[in-house]
Every structure is written in structure tokens, then in C-alpha cells.
Amino acid sequence: MKPGQFEQHAIPANGMSAQSISTAFDQMSTQDVRWRDGKAFSLAYNAGPDVLAVAEEAYRRFSGANALNTAAFPSLRQMQGEVLEMAGVWLGSTTNSAGYFTSGGTESILMAVKAARDQFRSDSSITHPNIVLPTSAHAAFDKAAAYFSVELRRVAVLPNWRADVAGMAAAVDQNTIMIVGSAPQYPQGVIDDIPELAALAQRRGVNCHVDACMGGVSLAYLGRLGYQIPPWNLQVDGVTSISVDLHKFGYTSKGASVIMYANKRLRSFQGFFTDQWLGGIYASSGMLGTKSGGAIAAAWAVMHFLGDDGYLRLTRSARVATEKLAQHITTHPHLSLLAQPDALLLSFVANEPTRLNVYAVADEMWKRGWYIDRQEPPQSLHCTVNAVHETVIDDMLADLDSCVSIALDTGMSGDVGAYGTLS
């Protein structure tokens, strides 16, 4: 090796066999969380091996198909359209509604912000737009603001962790283009007052986006299961756009989300078009150009495989596990819920942080194979509960109690985790 060079992984001189590659995958993944066994309370969603098999086969069959141009792949155009229609039922769409399939909640949020910026630039010549949102709204709005030069005005939430509508109203001015609410918000799992936020948006003549990436599927079915779910979707007057992730509680493969607008004109500001290229006309609906058809096919396949009754069953299972976890923490001598869960998310803290470091509890849980998100402020642990957890929740609670005892005895300091990394 020459001076100054660094050792790096080089492409093999000769190709590896398929078996060797499979063996390498097995070796590399030995330390990964066993999400298929229900050990992950974040990042992965599992409705069972039969659903996973359907999703993975559909993704495999269409992984090489390019959804950039569905004229060449009319199968993807058909599947995408039908996925949007099915998701639209959950989101309260009307005959005027129109949406797009995106790669995830972050892209859906980015596109909602981009569309609002361009809409108000066209309609009112606003050149320094701002968005008013609670501190609980997803970090993807910060990414959108950085990408599209939009000012964010984050307003502190109420003591119950919900959006402070009055505080947000005070932050609105002549350059505001959007008001944001969540159903539910991620950190504490509660639903913002969407009707009041939408009414505020209507009074001020601005857009109202509902981030239902976490709840767009589960809330639709929890309401049908008899739970008291406040109004949250496009049926609320004043809501102009809403997002839902199908790769979360829709249990489809990663890379599947939907953004739905109240009407086609609002959607028209999302896309990109140019004819200033020697290659001809270029147009795309979102951030991506080339994109695999695998996620579209997997979404279509899983939604048809599960059907309405399947989603009712899975939502019921996830809610049973959520309630069991919430009840356990409510009665725990050393832990407390930050809020009773409105859907399938919850977070909890130590009653006495000087005696118990909840991050140390997470460290101990990880030693037993359980992955739990860490949050702050305040220092808390967050659980996203899905259908697979009903079968393992008793084991998880037993380990949680044991890990709390260990953390109390050892006085360990835990490491701060992150929702995402740049690596």
C-alpha cells in the first residue's frame, strides 16, 4: 500500500457464489435486532410470516421495474392507482381528492411543504414563507424547511403534549403558508386537535397538513373497533393534505407512503417538470426519479392479501398489546407514562430520574435482544407497538421489570440514542 493510502473494501477479483453471499449476509446480520421475532419496538413492523412472504415475493417480482415512467410499466400504474384509492378510504378522501405514492413519511412531508410553498408563491407571491407547527411535529419538517427555504415556527406543546392551538395562532402572520398537526404525534403518541387546527388554517386562509404517517391506518380501524377517536382526516373541514405510511401499520415493505390532497389543484404543485434538457421532457411526482416498483407491488399485494378484516384483526392485536404495556407502566413503582396512548405509540419516564436512568434500562433490554427508542426531552423510552407484539408482550414486560431492577442496583448510565443517523 502506498503512503497516505487507506485500506478499503475492494470489489472481489472474482464473483462470489450465491451461497457465499447468503452466508455473508447471515454473518453480518448476527447482531441485528430480531424484528421478525417481535424484539423491535421501533423501526420494523411485522404482521406475521405469511404477510412478510407475500410482501417479499411481490417486491422481488417488481424490484427491477422502474416506476419513474409507468407508461412503460402499466402494471405499476394500475397498482399505484388502486393503492391510492384503498388508502384514500382510510384517509377520508372524497371524489375531489388526489394523491401520490411516495417512498416514505419523510418524502410525503417534504412534498407537502414543497407543494404549499409553490402554491402560495403562485397565488400570493409570498417569497419568505413560514410554517407554524408544534414542537412534537416530526423532524422531517425541519428537513423540508432546509431543503425548500421555508421558515419553521415551532410552538411549545401543552402539558398534555398536544398542539397549543392558541399559541400557534399567535405565531401565524401574513407569510404563513401551512399549519401542521399530527394524528398521532410520534414522541408521546397523542392526537393533536385537528378540527381546531384546521379551523385556524381556514380563518387565516392557509393550508393544514395532518401528519398521519403513524396513525393513518390504525386510527381508521381503531374507530371501527369502538375506540373513541377524535376527527383527524380529510373529512375535517380545512384539512388540505394528509400523509400515511403503508410500511408502518399497513405492514407493507419499506419504501411505501401516500400523500393525499383535498383536491387535484393542491396536488398539482407537488410535481416537477422541465423541457430544458436535450433528453426531452422530464417529469416526476416526488423527490425520486428512478424508483423500484417493488414497494408499489408489495403494498398492493399486502393490502389485497390482508383485506379489511385482516387489518381489523391486526389493529386489535396491536391495541391489546399497547394497552397491556400501558397498564403495566401505569402501575409500575419506578416508571410513568408521559401520556395515555391514543393509538399504538407510547413513551415512559423514570419516576425518580436521579435513581433510575431509563437509558440504562434500554441498554439492559438490548442485551436481552429488545430494541427500544430513546428520546429527549425529557429522557424517556418510546415504544411503537404492532401486531407481532401481542404474542411477546408478556416476555417483554418480564424483562423490563428485571432490567429496571438491574439499572437501579448498578446505577448504570445509558447512552443517548438517535431516531436516525447520517451513517
Q: Which regions have little confidence, pLDDT < 50, spanning 5+ residues?
A: none
Specify the structural class: alpha/beta
The average pLDDT is 95
Q: Under the CATH scheme, which class of the largest domain?
A: Alpha Beta
CATH fold call of the largest domain: Aspartate Aminotransferase, domain 2
Q: What separation lies between the terminal Cα atoms?
A: 26 Å
Query: Level of helix content?
Result: 25-40%
CATH architecture of the largest domain: 3-Layer(aba) Sandwich
N-to-C order of helices and strands? HHHEHEHEHEHEHEEHEEHEEHEEH
Number of helices: 12
Radius of gyration: 23 Å
Describe the largest sheet: 7 strands, mixed
Widest β-sheet, arrangement of strands: 1-7-6-5-4-2-3
Can you characterise this structure?
GO terms for molecular function: carbon-carbon lyase activity; pyridoxal phosphate binding. Its cofactor is pyridoxal 5'-phosphate. It is found in: Endoplasmic reticulum membrane. Keywords: Endoplasmic reticulum, Lipid metabolism, Lyase, Membrane, Pyridoxal phosphate, Sphingolipid metabolism, Transmembrane, Transmembrane helix. The chain is α/β, with parallel strands linked by helices and 423 residues long. It has 2 domains: 56-303, Type I PLP-dependent aspartate aminotransferase-like (Major domain) (Aspartate Aminotransferase, domain 2), CATH 3.40.640.10; 307-408, Aspartate Aminotransferase, domain 1 (Alpha-Beta Complex), CATH 3.90.1150.10. Helices cover 39% and strands 14% of the residues. It is built from 12 helices and 13 strands. The strands form 3 sheets. Strands 1-7-6-5-4-2-3 form a 7-stranded mixed beta sheet, with helices on both faces. A 4-stranded antiparallel beta sheet has the order 10-11-13-12. β12 and β13 (380-384) form a beta hairpin.
